[in-house]
Write a structure and sequence with these properties.
Length: about 250
């Protein structure tokens, strides 16, 4: 018997009626982008992740990108991450113009090595250290990176922490959940992920009201109120249909 690595059809057959009902509601409402379905998903995900706020976005990649943009990380900066991840982690750092610096993973967990992080920062010349602005630990294999020492180092050096939790929704670390420990938690709803949509989608969690407001602004081309653009953002909006699908799977 052939057992597929991923059986999305099997999963769909169990939830088909609920999905069709949710899709029908979205189509009937003709409210396709953001709106009440996205807002209720944001509340559900924030609560589940033990985080104060969540902002639905267009993909896990865009969750990383918007978090870097909200942090004003640009070509003047460097950002530390791990090489053992999906391309999007490093690609997003490069896309805002920053230079990625790699630290190795822990051979036990395959996630960021806190000792490696400390060694890399200690070895930085002063000018390089001045450019360093953020750290992106990646949580893989159902576990979180060893966040306590990572957070301590980041606090000591005043670094923004962007958790790449694209594959880690619900993963726990010392009573905390992935995405609630750093300044931002970035999740992907790519269909094959632990919690997948029927297309692209993602969400960013944060505990900071200020960052939450800026995330919401940059998600819609930096506008607030509507059509008043005081910042340059992008179109990082989440579709109502994707939010409805994720909500069905979530319960
Ligand atoms: C670790 C990691 N980061 C980021 C991403 C990007 O997510 P998305 O495919 O939703 O853009 C993925 C998923 O592909 C991932 O596995």
């Amino acid at each position: 018997m052939k057992v597929p690595l991923l059986d999305l059809k099997g999963q769909y057959s169990v939830i088909k009626d609920e999905i069709l009902k949710a899709a029908h509601e979205v189509f009937e409402s003709q409210y396709f982008i953001l709106g009440p379905r996205v807002e209720s998903l944001e509340k559900e995900i924030a609560d589940y992740c033990f985080s104060k706020y969540a902002v639905g976005v267009s993909s896990g990649t865009d969750a990383l990108l918007i978090s870097l943009m909200v942090s004003d990380i640009d070509s003047q900066n460097t950002v530390i991450t791990v090489p053992h991840t999906f391309f999007a982690t490093v690609g997003s750092i490069s896309r805002v113009g920053a230079r990625p610096i790699f630290v190795d993973i822990d051979p036990e967990t395959y996630n960021m090595s806190p000792e490696g992080l400390e060694r890399t920062i200690d070895a930085m010349p002063r000018a390089e250290l001045a450019r360093l602005k953020g750290v992106v630990p990646v949580h893989l294999y159902g576990q979180c990176a060893d966040m306590d020492p990572i957070l301590k180092i980041c606090k000591d050096y005043n670094l923004v922490v962007i958790e790449d939790a694209a594959q880690a929704i619900g993963a726990e670390y010392n009573g905390k959940r992935a995405g609630s420990m750093g300044d931002f938690g970035c999740f992907s709803f790519f269909p094959s992920k632990n919690l997948g949509a029927f297309g692209d989608g993602g969400i960013v969690t944060t505990g900071s009201e200020k960052l939450y407001e800026k995330l919401r602004m940059l998600r819609g081309h930096g506008s607030h109120p509507k059509y008043y653009h005081s910042l340059i953002g992008g179109n990082f909006r989440l579709d109502a249909f994707q939010a409805a699908v994720v909500s069905v799977k979530f319960f």
